[in-house]
Structures are given as C-alpha cells and as structure tokens.
Amino acid sequence: MDKSFLHHLNKSQFTLDWNGHIAFVDYQIQGGKWYLLHAEVPAALRGQGVGQVLVEKTYAYLNEHGIKSVPVCSYIQALVKRHPSLVTGASL
User: Fold this and answer.
1) pLDDT digit string (tens) for 23-68?
2) How distant, in Å, are the alpha carbons of 12, 19, 77 from that of 2?
C-alpha cells in the first residue's frame, strides 16, 4: 500500500497519496503561526482512518520543525482534542 506524505510549500498544502487517492490539509501562515484551514479526504477513503493519518503526519512535520500552529478546521480541532499528544506547538 503506497502512502506518500508531502509538503508543498508553494501551495501551502500537505498531501497524503493513499494508493492514488490524494488527501490534503491546506494552511495559511500569519504572524509566525500556521493556520490549518481545511482537511479533505476523498470519498472513497472516508471511514478508513486516512484523515487521522494525514493529520498525524502533518503534526509530526510541524512538531519536528518547531512550527506553531492553530487548527481552524473542525475535523483537525476535534482530532487534537481527542489526541492532544499530537501537538507540541499548537494554540487552541
């Protein structure tokens, strides 16, 4: 099973390629914080935990790079509330 996670700085987006289906998180940088605006998983992958993997990988990247973030997307907010250990530099 192919699962490639990429950061596209020029698009302000993280993507997860899951067997040819692309899930993504869009963000915007303001005042030194990365605002996680929207997460989307293709309909064919919903209910399989792909969204959680995408958000986990996104936070792993942010944490590794010491980037402070603000989850704006309601899905990301809910996931962070259920799994606060995902985040080391987030503001809720």
Assistant:
1) 999 999 999 999 999 999 999 999 999 999 999 999 999 999 989 9
2) 23, 5, 27
The pTM of this model reads 0.89
Could you give the CA distance from residue 33 to residue 46 in angstroms, rounded to a whole number?
29
CA angle centred on 6, ends 10 and 76, rounded to 5°: 90
Break the chain into its structural domains and give their ranges. 3-86
Domain 3-86 is of which CATH architecture?
3-Layer(aba) Sandwich (3.40)
91: tokens are: 């503001």
Q: How many helices (H) and strands (E) does the chain have?
A: 2, 5
56 token code pair: 């986990």
Classify the C-alpha dihedral 18-56-28-46 as positive or negative: positive
**φ and ψ at 67, to 5 degrees?**
-95, 125
